[in-house]
Amino acid sequence: MVIKLKKIIFSLTVIFALAISRIFYLSVLKNNYYKELLDIKTNIKVEGLDAPRGRILDVNNKVLVDNVGINCIIYNKSNINVKDEIKLAYKLASNITDIQEANIYELKKFYLVLNNDGNDLIKKKEYQLYNERKLDSYDLNKLKYERINEELLNKFTLLDKKAAKIYNLMNKGYSYDKKIIAKNINENEYAKIIEMNLKGITGEMTWERKYNYDTLRDIFGTIGPISKENKDYYLKKGYELTDIVGLSNLEYQYDEYLKGKKAVYKLNNDKTLTLLEESSKGNDIHLSIDIDMQEEINEIIENNIIKGKKMANTKYYDGSYALVIDSKTGLIKAIAGKKLTNNNEFQDTSFNVINSSFTPGSVVKGASMTVGYQNNLIDIGKKIKDSCVKLYLNPEKCSYKSLGYIDDITALKTSSNYYQFLLAIKSTGNKYSYNMKLDVNEDNFNLYRDVFKQYGLGNTTGIDLPNEPTGLRGSKVAGDLLLNLAIGQYDTYTILSLGQYMNTIANNGTRYKLNLVDYVTNDKSEVIYSYKPVILNKIDMQSIYYDRIKEGLRQVLYLGTGYGYTNTSYKPAGKTGTSESFLDLNNDGINDVKTITSTYAMFAPFDNPKYTVVVVSPNIGHYDGKKGNMAYINRYLSNEITKLIYDNY
To answer: Domain containing 638 — which CATH number?
Structure first.
């Protein structure tokens, strides 16, 4: 008996100890955990509408993209029954002019709300099947929606349809979310609704982008709701699905800087909200763009398009582009493009500088000379007589005229195609002979393309925008096409990459990343990010060869094919290019007209570069029969643009 009693006492002691330890574990060790759990369950926090995004400014702090406040009517779902909610929807529909009508699904949903959940649409037999679990609630609901036919919906008036739209907006999402019923309504209606003091209705402000200039809009990008495709990406970054985010270009690239911080509210037991944190504006991004330079270049382009259209052979010419880069940093100062539409209005096409590619012509010959120098294909200073190359089963390929005796420097100065053809043939391990068969392979093309990529041609420039294209790479392999590649008549390149290429020559083979954003400031005007120049690569070539390339490019503008493109008082060096392309006038996949594109790239001063400039005018002339006639509008454009920036900036 005593032993039994001891066992009972021991068992009770163990149970009591376990209970005490469990209580200690729950009340002490897990106290904070359960407090947090209770806080989550009872202290629901609600975010307000979108806060204003940061602004986009130019290098001189001129505001390019700002925010404008938009009046919104907001529904805060409180303790209100369905009947009162319907009355509220009708009252708002009667006082807001600009409300969309409900769609078919929303009308059917509203019909059910107005008609006892549509129970009369279900037959007794169907209810019996439901009770027997042969139909479920989904099946009944589907039958209801199917039986709300056109005849029933036609009884809805315009006011009913607007009220249905509002009712659906009031019940969209979580019950504690702020529901935008109407935005950007006129001041009179906004004031009238606020004065009504309707239960659950408040007036608040949201924000939209305001553009202070008619240029660079596509480069700034767009904002909008998070798409289904991108939701996982943004959720991982802590965004809410209701957030407005940058969808493209700078708005997308710098969204984490630009996005504002929403106001935070506590949801009370009576469904009202208490403000916990005020909203705050996003950070401002400051571009390297000089908007005054940009606007003046735009005006020069527009004036010259008008002038060009009065010249002969400019039937298909309708626009030009210009790019200005800070040679020392790779920061972009201006990125301009204008097109004359069929309505005789000018359209901003600045984004094409980044997003479109062109066959550049002889502009790339500085990179082609690099292939020759790096592979010991050039005897520097050795003169040869300019001529033509004839390959088997191909017509003769020549320079634009007979250029006499040339060496490596004067080959650039006079833009000799013959010199480049000989280098290309040598690069395959062959020596040119008349009517020779030139067998080539992909490696022969890659020898050129790999060097071109080191300059940025056929490569990304690193610009701070998403999805930068690299141009089009020819897919065919043939001897005559290798010669075309060497003179810029095969692959296509973006204007941006042409700028980086010329800038790399200006910096003796150092390729700088290109960039649009210079720095970022917070709401206290403190710099929280500053761009530092980034070197992407350095081309391995002796300085003596860069000296010869730069001297050749200098002579291009003093005495050669580029004379008149830039005033020599600025000590420029550069290269012109002329290329052939085709236009499909009917969008039927057939090339209808062979046209001429004129390209110019330069830097100055050649011994201490300040700016690097590219000017491109596509379709500036066309072929009439076998003869190609080109208007000289790109020369006038280039002269005016370089004069503008070197005299004023």
So the answer is: 3.40.710.10
Q: In angstroms, rounded to a whole number, what is the distance separating the alpha carbons of residues 495 and 486?
A: 18
Residue 303 lies in a domain: yes
pLDDT for the residue 188: 87
Top pLDDT among 181 and 522 is at 522
Is the entire prediction scored with pTM above 0.85?
A: no
CA 525, distance to chain mean position in Å, is 26
b/e per residue 338-354 (b: at least 16 CB within 10 A): bbbeeeeebebbbbbbb
**Alpha helices, DSSP H, located in 259-323:** 291-309
- 632 assigned to some structural domain: yes
- In sequence order, what DSSP letters do the residues of 555-609 get, joined into one string? HHHHTSTTTTSS-GGG--EEEEEEEEEEE-TTSSS---EEEEEEEEEEEESTTS-
Torsion sign across C-alpha atoms 67, 73, 79, 83: negative
Please, are residues 201 and 74 in contact by the beta-carbon 8 Å criterion? yes
Q: What is the pLDDT of residues 266-287, one digit of tens each?
A: 767 665 667 777 778 899 999 9
Cis amide prior to 52 (ω within 30 degrees): no
Quick one: pLDDT at residue 513?
A: 98
Full residue range of the structural domain in which residue 446 is found: 291-648
Q: Is 362 within the bounds of a domain?
A: yes
Mean pLDDT of all residues in the chain?
90
The C-alpha angle 636, 638, 644, rounded to 5 degrees, equals 105
As for how many domains the chain has, the answer is 2
Instruction: Give per-residue burial for 195-220: e unless 16+ CB within 10 Å, then b.
Output: eeebebbeebebbbbeeebebbbbbb
Q: Which of 372, 578, 393 shows the shortest CA–CA distance to 479?
A: 393
Q: Is-contact 464 251, C-beta < 8 A?
A: no
For residue 150, tell me if it sits in a domain: no
Which helix (H) or strand (E) covers residue 22, if one does? Answer: helix 2-24
DSSP state, 380? Answer: T
Phi/psi class of residue 602: alpha, beta or left (left: φ > 0; alpha: ψ in -120 to 50)?
beta
Element (H, E) at 321: strand 319-326
Distance CA 622, CA 620 (A): 7
Structure tokens at 369: 């000379």
Return d(Cα 422, Cα 378) in angstroms, integer: 10
pLDDT digit string, tens, across residues 338-380:
999 999 999 999 999 999 999 999 999 999 999 999 999 999 9
